[in-house]
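Before relying on records like the one below, remember that each one covers exactly one chain. Contacts with other chains, cofactors or solvent are not represented anywhere in the record.
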Amino acid sequence: MLKKEGKEITIYDIATKLKLSPSTVSRALQDHPSISKKTKKRIFELAAEVGYRQNHFARNLRSDKTLVLGVIVPRLNSNFMSSAIAGMEMIANEHGYSLLISQSSESAIKEAASAKTMFNSRVDGLLVSLAFDTESLEHFDSFFKRNTPVFFFDRTMPHDSSTNILIDNYRAGYNVTRHLIEQGCKKIVHITAPPRQNVYRDRLAGYKGALADAGIAFEEGNVIITDLTQDAGYQTAQKIAGWEQRPDAVFVANDSCAIGCMLALKEKGIRIPEDIAFAGFNNDPVSTVIEPNLTTIGYSGYEMGQVAARHMINHLKGTFPIDPTNTIILRSELIVRASSVKHKPGS
């Protein structure tokens, strides 16, 4: 009986025990057709009995492939990001890849540390949604220098050696604001995050564009910068409720913050949408639980994850080249619910 306290059982141990060559054991464990079923059965039974584990890592190092994709996201507790990861995993598993996942916790410093870990883990490619405060892509230089592909999704930044997968955030922000204007709203507050990232910068630009097209002057004081948590929404509502001239609509750059704001205003007896109409962004499941249901922008995190992983694997297989113009725009839609409807159709 084989016993190696605290040490891994190797193919050499199995070969010695069964009086076979190591190469025969190795081929059998890889289910090679040149090895008879009877011999394979003996080898697999002993391997299971002694707790042998195949060293995929060492084998992959010899082929210079790990069959692992790295994923860095801002928050794992985000419905959108967890859906994106699920989409990536589905595609990755179909093609024999696994995922190594890390969260930056909205910190560029943690994002850089995660990137270093991913690089040292020799991932074949990296899928990243950037943190709130990421201002440059320098911490991904080690990947770019080795021609290891890096794709950015949702929160993106252009780079000659990368591909971006996102929605048209300008158009989405424009459509939300235009809808609120069509409901008769003129003083529309926009609650967002620091505009370092494309998603918040472009949604803000869409908001401004819709105001301009409607002949409504943009007021800097109507843009409120937060971290977009539900608590931030709750705290922001305290300020809005105290304004001498309250807004007649609020457009928030995500649903969680919008709901925090709605809850606080409702506690103060402010009616939604009669007094203040509301719209969010992301179509989180909670948007259909809050009363009234929240108007929002819907786009699929699952689909975005699938598209990102599929294009990454296609690139690794040589069928999807990277060039500076590689930007993949996915569909989004305005979902109108009761929180923003001040005028019923025909009224």
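The chain is about 40% helix and 15% strand.
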